[in-house]
TrEMBL record:
Residues 1-31 form the signal peptide. Residues 76-168 form the TonB-dependent receptor plug domain. InterPro entries: Beta-barrel_TonB, Beta-barrel_TonB_sf, Plug_dom, Plug_dom_sf. Residues 302-742 form the TonB-dependent receptor-like beta-barrel domain. This is TonB-dependent receptor. Residues 232-248 have a biased composition (Polar residues). Residues 227-263 are annotated as: Disordered. Belongs to the TonB-dependent receptor family. The keyword Signal applies. Residues 249-263 have a biased composition (Basic and acidic residues). It is found in: Cell outer membrane.
Length: 787
């Protein structure tokens, strides 16, 4: 399929979703007249809040208590808003068991229970969305926090959702038309450690329009992240040589890394809510323009910074001067229409949706190498284009078996297309004129010449098609204080991959099916105490970069990687058991134990074929041969201190102990990059007499270790402290000042690098590296005005 044909197909799907939604509108206009004057939904729950309720918060927000059978932790926007998170990822830093392996002051790929992002299912309004990452994950820094109505942590899966949730699911629910009456505008600025300002603006409106209700919002956010990095590299490690710091020093790298960006977002919903029929059309659009600018200097001395080495003489210490710039343009959008109708045989719901993610990157890297007789210039130009789209149809029917028992069944269809194209070109030539180089006045970019047309390399251009048809059924009920749900989901997948760079001609692929049972319950022991339990079978689909049949030379140290289109998903049986107690007016304290038994784990396996680098190297291929287990305990608390006579003081905190075990070719380890723990705690004080509030949060996550063939890395983070102060003016205006990263966030990484598997087993190092990254505090002032 050509790019043009793919675009046409996507356009037709968007039109189908939109036309289907518009066709439903006329039949619903009359139904809207039956909605009560108090603007309640048919289930009787109050749905509308005023813009003043959002802008001027009347009380401190805590975790919500959910009465359904599923183990869900729900946090409304009032729980996050006072700390003014920029993105959904920033908001999730305050909830249990979510870790990140991002650069400092960034929160992109959430790692629920500390597992790699691909083990966490990301949902927007309860539905999956495509992302640009090879592990199928979605970066939550694409969703501005201003769009969020609430966040749900779904600890165990249900048959009503797709089963790609080994660690659990994170559901980001955006505001809809039945959540706001009125509007508000927001504006402010952020100030960074390098004395740069970035603007922040937004506006939201919700109200009755025609037979239904409309909500529309827009947001513009300036993004900036200035970091300093330093690396010390050695030819040996302290585990082999305690005096390595003085005897085995190789080089030092100093780097500035500045990331500038602009985020533009729009979301809208239109809903017609009748007594028996409901129609909803909604969508969101987010665009990110981002530039990542790095400048690096390598020196042959641990501290000196003077000029380049010339002809091996000791007249300078500069080994290389590198300039790297990556221009990133990303767009993702979702549009879906939902129609539900209550009739004599139950309630039927049809949902049609289309989601798309486009990632375009243009990266240049220029370097002058002085560690040779004549300096050499190298210029690389790389283009990356990823398009990932999903068209989905979901049909569900619910029927009451008794007054307290309900049967729900339905089907799900997904048509996923992912196109990847990575092209590269290199310029290289000697530059005698660079002998007298001054790295503080000159830049390697000035030596660049025009690039030839980029060309592909093995594994860099492919197209993946994934067709899914699922069926599911569940029974849910309630008997007094006992609520329960039990169901099963049957998922079938037809995968096809076409790689124009692979040795095999034509299309390759795989077909597989999985039966995924699940069950959960909640038992209210008293009005305050309850027990929550669940069991579910889930799966994790293979990473896209493992499916390509191409041979990637020297991809794993000096070892080669051969993809495997025949990979099956990993599967896991999971168990959760928790207890929670209601305290104070709206507070909750809870504890939860979880366990996952992961089977069919995808591990790299030595094929026995000698690699492209010759004797001692091999070709490795991913196969479904491993197993592992994940377990831990999660504690969370959020409550006011009314029982101590302090009703306007709120405290919150959570701590999670996370562990796992897996066996690779070198022995046992945890799942890659799983932090040992994560905790955060804080407090908010509301001073109602003067219309003010203030508060602070403190967060820390434990060390993480990851091991692949050719490299091992241990990552540690410093603590994160945030403080806010708020002043309210009447019922319509709130101004907040927030300081974040007040402890100058630090990220430290220790790299063990090896050439061959034998070297890694014998601990014979190719390189040992200590890298440190640091960013300064960020201050922001944001004002909101309701109308």
């Amino acid at each position: 399929m050509t790019k043009f044909q793919g675009f046409g197909l996507r356009a037709r799907r968007v039109m189908l979703a939109g036309i289907a939604g518009l066709a439903m509108v006329p039949s619903l206009a009359a139904a809207q007249e039956t909605v009560a004057d108090d603007q309640q939904r048919p289930d009787g729950e109050q749905a509308i809040v005023t813009s003043q309720d959002i802008v001027v918060q009347g009380q401190i927000g805590y975790r919500n208590r959910i009465d359904g059978a599923e183990p869900v932790l729900e946090y409304g926007t009032e729980y996050f808003q006072r700390f003014e998170p920029l993105t959904a990822g920033d908001a999730l830093k305050r909830v249990p068991s979510v870790t990140f392996l991002s650069d400092v002051i960034e929160s992109d790929g959430p790692r629920l229970r500390g597992l790699p992002p691909g083990y966490t299912q990301i949902l927007i309004n309860g539905e999956r969305v495509p992302g640009g990452q090879a592990d199928r994950s979605f970066f939550l820094d694409r969703i501005p926090a201003e769009l969020i109505s609430r966040v749900e942590i779904v600890r165990s899966n249900s048959a009503r959702r797709t089963g790609d949730a080994v660690a659990g699911s994170l559901n980001i629910v955006l505001r809809d038309g039945y959540q706001l009456d009125g509007g508000y505008v927001r504006g402010g600025a952020l100030y960074y450690d390098d004395e740069e300002f970035e603007p922040s603006f937004g506006a939201v409106f919700g109200g009755k329009v025609g037979p239904g209700r409309l909500l529309i919002g827009g947001n513009f956010q300036g993004r900036h992240n200035p970091k300093l990095k330093s690396s010390l590299r050695f030819s040996e490690s302290p585990e082999n040589n305690p005096s390595f710091a003085t005897q085995d020093f190789d080089n030092r790298e100093d780097q500035t890394d500045t990331r500038d960006g602009k985020d533009y977002s729009v979301n809208a919903t239109y809903e017609i809510d009748g007594a028996d029929t409901n129609f909803q059309l909604r969508g969101f659009y987010v665009r990110t323009d981002r530039t990542e600018d790095e400048r690096s200097f390598e020196y042959n001395d641990p501290t000196a910074i003077n000029g380049p080495v010339r002809n091996g003489a000791a007249s300078g210490n500069l080994l290389t001067d590198n300039a790297n710039v990556n221009e990133i343009d990303q767009e993702n959008f979702t549009i879906d229409g939902k129609l539900s109708h209550q009739w004599s045989a139950g309630k039927t719901t049809l949902r049609i949706g289309y989601a798309n993610f486009d990632d375009k990157q243009r990266e240049t890297e220029f370097e002058v190498d002085f560690d040779r007789a004549t300096p050499r210039f190298t210029g690389d130009f790389t283009t990356l284009d990823v398009g990932d789209s999903e068209f989905t149809v979901k049909l569900e029917h619910a029927v009451d078996l008794t007054d307290e028992v309900k049967l729900v069944f339905g089907g799900y269809y997904q048509d996923k297309d992912r196109d990847t194209a990575i092209l590269t070109v290199r310029n290289r030539f000697n530059v005698a004129a660079a002998r007298n180089w001054n790295q503080f006045e000159r830049n390697p970019t000035e030596l660049n010449t025009a690039f030839a047309a980029p060309a592909f390399t093995p594994g860099s251009v492919n197209s993946i098609e994934e067709r899914r048809i699922d069926g599911f059924a569940l029974v849910e009920g309630r008997n007094g204080g006992f609520s329960w749900e039990a169901g099963v989901r049957y998922e079938t997948t037809d995968l096809t991959i076409i790689d124009v760079t692979g040795a095999a001609a034509g299309a390759l692929g795989n077909d597989y099916s999985k039966l995924l049972p699940s069950a959960s319950f909640k038992y209210d022991i008293t009005d305050q105490d309850r027990i929550i339990g669940s069991v579910a079978r889930t799966n994790r689909r293979p990473e896209f970069n493992f499916l390509s049949p191409a041979l990637l030379e020297a991809e794993l140290g000096d070892n080669d990687l051969l993809g495997n289109p025949g990979l099956d998903p990993e599967t896991a049986w999971g168990f959760d058991l928790g207890y929670e107690r209601r305290i104070g007016r709206g507070g909750i304290v809870g504890i939860n134990f979880f366990y996952r038994d992961v089977q069919n784990l995808i591990e790299l396996t030595n094929t026995g074929v000698v690699g492209s680098e010759g004797a001692g190297t091999f070709v490795f291929q991913p196969l479904n041969i491993g197993d592992g287990k994940v377990y831990g305990v999660e504690f969370d608390l959020s409550t006011d201190l009314g029982f101590l006579g302090l009703p306007d003081t709120g405290i919150f905190g959570n701590v999670s102990y996370l562990d796992s075990e897996i066996t690779d070719v070198f022995g046992k380890r945890r799942f890659n990059d799983q932090s040992k723990y994560v905790y955060n705690f804080g407090a908010i004080q509301d001073v109602k007499s003067i219309g003010m509030a203030f508060g602070a949060t403190y967060r820390k996550q434990g060390n993480a270790f990851g091991r692949v063939i050719g490299e091992e890395v241990t990552t540690s983070y410093g603590a994160d402290l945030e403080i806010f102060i708020e002043k309210r003016f009447g019922n319509s205006l709130t101004i907040r000042a927030v300081g974040s990263n007040l402890l100058n966030g630090k990220k430290r990484e220790v790299f063990n690098k090896f050439t061959t598997v034998e070297d890694q087993t014998d601990r014979s190092f190719d390189e040992y590296e200590l890298e440190a990254e640091e960013a300064g505090p960020v201050f922001q002032v944001i004002a909101r005005y309701a109308f």
